[in-house]
Amino acid sequence: xxxxxxxxxVIGGGVAGLRAAIELAPHGEVLVVTKDIPTxxxxxxxxxxxxxxxxDEDRVGIHYRDTIRAGAGLSDEEAVRxxxxxxxxxxxxxxxxxxxxxxxxxxxxxxxEAAHSRKRVLHxxxxxTGRELVRVLIGKASTFSTVRRYPxxxxxxxxxxxGVCLGAYVLRDRKVRAxxxxxxxxxxxxxxxxxxxxxxxxxxxxxxxxxxxxxxxEMKHMEFVQFHPSTxxxxxxxxxxxxxxxxVKERFPRIYSTCLTYDVDITGDLIPVSPAAHYMMGxxxxxTQGATTAQGLLAAGEVACTGIHGANRLASNxxxxxxxxxxxxxxxxxxxxxxxxxxxxxxxxxxRTIPQHDEIRGRLRxxxxxxxxxxxxxxxxxxxxxxxxxxxxxxxxTYATRRELExxxxxxxxxxxxxxxxxxxxxxxxxxxxxxxxxxxxxxPCPAG
Length: 449
Description:
Radius of gyration: 21 Å
Mean pLDDT: 92
Distance between the termini: 49 Å
Helix content: 25-40%
Strand content: 15-25%
Number of helices: 11
Largest sheet: 7 strands, mixed
């Protein structure tokens, strides 16, 4: 097997991964591995904005309280404090690198979003905030000769020896190679594609979560998946007709153009909105420095669980988390020099195919949507676990194609979500069980049938 050695390996090219790479760049050679083109990530599609306490009417203490309240009592207070205190500096840093946030005259324009008690959400080009952050971070990273990008490379597994992470096995052009590094930063995003209806891009198949779990890293809060919106019907309607058409087009340019392709003019039509899997609060457990329980492995962004979001993410905190904790994970990785007492075992030869893997993928996604979705109960979760167990043979092999590797990761993560949801008996935050004392029995039917 071909081997490559770098100082630092970053897996994922969204906001968290890019910010980590920038932090690492002055300290050695950095390789940024992306499954698709460098700009394809959940960060690129983030339209909501980035929350930060920078307006005249806001304070970091107020942002802290709003975040804690949204997390329904399960947020890590120290992690939240770091987020809100370091956030303003990270945004000012982005502006100094050329980020173009929307303004009212010469001042930054802040908007009010759900569960925020102050106007603190910044946008860029109306509804293209994530794209703007990625643009600026890629531009900054490209100024370092030490940062290399490795696109169209799929994470197969982490290279591990006796609990120490030494790098990763990656698949490119149907060939697997080992990339060995002093430290590895996971920034692979979430896993919305586990569900049949999702806002996430096709790359979001929980690859980092599954690989970290296989490597022995501790996982946390996997049962908490955020859906937007959660309603009792198949869809609701948004009405923007009370706004001037010019304002709507300027404020939501990407949404306006996208909806037109579906024959919906958001300046004059009611806009149908249906629930979708949106964000995973759980993931690979890290400390406030981005360190996981596996030596040499760090994680940042949606793949990680710092504890900031608790049981429910406060709107627009995720991009800020990627910036703050991406930088922290990078700084922590600089201090790492992962070595193992013995070399790792070679990766087993890939199995070429999973029979009917696309059919299984579709069935898995529908199962998770119907039984482990917005509304859950013990019966539906047990049913889902039994169904998922039928495909556990997939987890014992290594595969040579992206689609099959993704299915393996989706299945592994689906099992983690379902087991976590079955274990947590009470309804809290984004986890709603009809058989919970707080679940208002009879308000919603159990999805077991």
